[in-house]
Amino acid sequence: SIYSTASKASKVVASEIANLIRARNQTGQNTVLGLATGSTPLQVYSELVRLHEEEGLSFKRVITFNLDEYYPMHPEEIQSYVRFMNENLFDKIDIPQKNIHIPDGTIPKEKVYEYCKEYERKIDEAGGLDIQILGIGRTGHIGFNEPGSLAKTRTRLVTLDEITRSDAAAAFYGEERVPRQAITMGVGTILKAKKIYLMAWGEPKAKVIKKSLEGEVTEQIPATFLQNHENTKVILDEAAASEL
Ligand code: GLP
User: What is the pLDDT of residues 37-68, one digit of tens each?
Assistant: First the structure.
């Protein structure tokens, strides 16, 4: 779907998430959300906060799993995705702390493999992701699944693409300060979600959106794997859709 602005599009995504949460709340069931960082989902989060504050939408039965985190990364750092999620969403809603899962950028290297397996296990134990929201990187990455990530990949430690590191340079006050690695859910983890919203705003995303939606499915552009997921909704503003 194409909307005139990111703000309108974000409200639609937020209201669909809210509808599922309300329905589940009514029957006493949990809602499991896969969440993303970056600038793309910001207005979805602000709308969910508004629905909580103004309409009493309760997140007490919501369980969340974030896609990724830089590695290494301390949760207090300003670039940390833990901090991002707290500031933009979790601190402003009534979600129990124990329901929040974000890959831990402080795990010692020798424990990362086990940690990632445990992250997958927790997603399964929660019943799997009901909704996963995604932005997209200039390399066609989803989460931090860079070019070369296969369709079956699971949560793991990955090496960031140079393009991704250069896009993150401003946030880290210089490219040399951008971590070289990240922990990310795999493409396979993402594709298991029952519903996926891929969102992109603005002209800089137009090229990668065209390749992702209209190009052949290839691990060179991991977002193309979404073409094989039967319940993915692509949500664009006019600028991001301008090359389609
Ligand atoms: C980072 C995140 C991705 C996100 C991408 C795009 O690489 N790990 O999940 O989709 O940035 O960022 P933005 O939404 O700011 O364009």
Answer: 999 999 999 999 999 999 999 999 999 999 99
Banded model confidence at residue 140, pLDDT cuts 50, 70, 90? very high
Number of domains in the chain: 1
* Residue reference for tokens 């250069």: 166
Burial (Cβ within 10 Å: 0-12, 13-18, ≥19) of residue 178: buried
Report which protein residue has its CA nearest ligand 1's atom 5.
137
pLDDT score recorded for residue 213: 98
21 within domain boundaries: yes
* Atom in ligand 1 nearest the alpha carbon of residue 182: 8
Active site residues: 68, 141, 146
Structural domain span for residue 126: 2-237
In a domain, 244, yes or no: no
CATH number assigned to the domain comprising residue 219: 3.40.50.1360
- Please tell me the distance between residue 39's alpha carbon and the centre of ligand 1 in angstroms: 7
Q: Which residues contact 61 (CB under 8 A, 6 or more apart)?
A: 21, 24, 25, 28, 29, 30, 31
Is residue 242 situated within a structural domain?
no
185-205 confidence digits (pLDDT tens): 999 999 999 999 999 999 999
Predicted TM-score (pTM) of the model is 0.97
Residue 68 maps to a domain:
yes
